[in-house]
Amino acid sequence: MTAFATAAAAVSPLLTRLAAERATGALLRDRGTLFLQDGRIVHAESPATPGLDVLLTTGGALAPERWREAVDRAGARGQVARFLVDSGGLADGELEICHLAAIFDAAFFALSPGSGPSRFRRGATHWIGSVRSVPAAAVERETRRRRELLDAVWPYPQLDTASVVPRAAAPGQTVTARQRLLLAHADGVRTPADLAWVLGRPAFHTLLDVRRLAAAGLVETPHPPARAPVVTTLPDWMTQTQSPDVALLRRLRDALEASL
After folding, report:
1. CA–CA dist 186, 175 (Å, integer)
2. By three-state DSSP, how is residue 177 classified?
3. HSE-up (13 A, CA, CB side) for residue 28
């Protein structure tokens, strides 16, 4: 693949360049921020997704007061992750799995096409501290895969931001326990992002669940409003009845009679 084709296929050309430069800092976009260390992604966050704290505490892996204690005592030093493990609040593997889920989830939204221009703040770090880094190429590859997966399941992106409206299951239709829990919290007002926060689940996985439910007919699929018909206004001279030029017709008649 040529360098031009590679750049064209990149989810974020700036991220690709920063990774090649082994840069350290924060890549800021409208829908999220990626933190890099030596060109690798060490953390990501987005207002569209539940953060690591929500994933840990809502899921029951960590008590909310333990998270607050870690932030209070180690946040200023940028060692919250290390404090959680050293204090016995979490096992290394448990924190690592949840942290990776948070990275890929936030990156999906931060790198979305409508996330606005990119800015890079060199040297910026995140207070969570070191957990595990991920190659930028792996994050871009996973972001592309997730976009394709959503469209393959049910190609209606309006679902991602609309209120989730449940529909009754058909007779004999199977609904999984995971789907039942999501549907139980779908009150016709909450969006997939709202449900992700309530359930303490990654936002992308919630989008995927909602699209699968819509494909199965268990959630309403919103459709864009019909486009209004285009009314073409013709100029007056094209719509007014034209009166014939009587004198011209007479001259034509006289000329024809003269030639006979």
Report:
1. 15
2. helix
3. 10
